[in-house]
Amino acid sequence: RVPPRFSKEPDSMYEVMPGASLSISCVAVGSPMPYVQWKKGPAIDMTDNLITKNVLVLENIQESANYTCQAQSTLGLVTKDVEVKVQALPRPPDNVRISDVMSTSVRITWSYDVNLSDVSYYVIQYKPRHADRDYAEISGLVTKFYTVSNLTPFTEYEFHVLAVNKIGRGPPSEPAIVTTGET
């Protein structure tokens, strides 16, 4: 007689993009043979989502959730908690504002009110508004403000700010338009 133990244990965390599918295996052994069951959160039985009794199948995942694999026999119970974390590109920063306008520099500020651990850094993109050229970029910013310098006097500029996380770059903010001062 052997109490239940996991012979194939799921990982503690799976990170997925929104809409992804995931199959998680959890195999237990023992004598008598343990009964394996998956639960979502503390109480929701996930038996309907199983291909076999050991593999939990999640489709079109839209939100993060915690699952538990439990294996039980008359000799005991073992459990393994699994976090399924939905990752997505960060949304654009809000309230992009320009202040301290000089002839060759401006201060740009923005807000971002989500869990900061999800944002690795920010990027400012800017260019003269009517110029037919690519945006210049200032990358790797960890503050929510920056003074952009080396601008051309008396020129209308367009600024965007975007957030970056481990999935990638999010979409740019609404443009902030400003005309630099005269020299």
From TrEMBL:
Catalysed reaction, written as an equation: O-phospho-L-tyrosyl-[protein] + H2O = L-tyrosyl-[protein] + phosphate
Pfam families noted in UniProt: fn3, Ig_3
Enzyme class: hydrolase
Superkingdom per UniProt: Eukaryota
Domain Fibronectin type-III: 92-183
Enzyme Commission code: 3.1.3.48
InterPro entries: FN3_dom, FN3_sf, Ig-like_dom, Ig-like_dom_sf, Ig-like_fold, Ig_sub, Ig_sub2
GO-annotated biological processes: cell-cell adhesion
Keywords linked to the UniProt accession: Disulfide bond, Glycoprotein, Hydrolase, Immunoglobulin domain, Membrane, Protein phosphatase, Receptor, Repeat, Signal, Transmembrane, Transmembrane helix
Gene Ontology CC entries for this record: membrane
Membrane topology: Single-pass membrane protein
GO MF term list: protein tyrosine phosphatase activity
UniProt name for this protein: protein-tyrosine-phosphatase
UniProt organism field: Cherax quadricarinatus
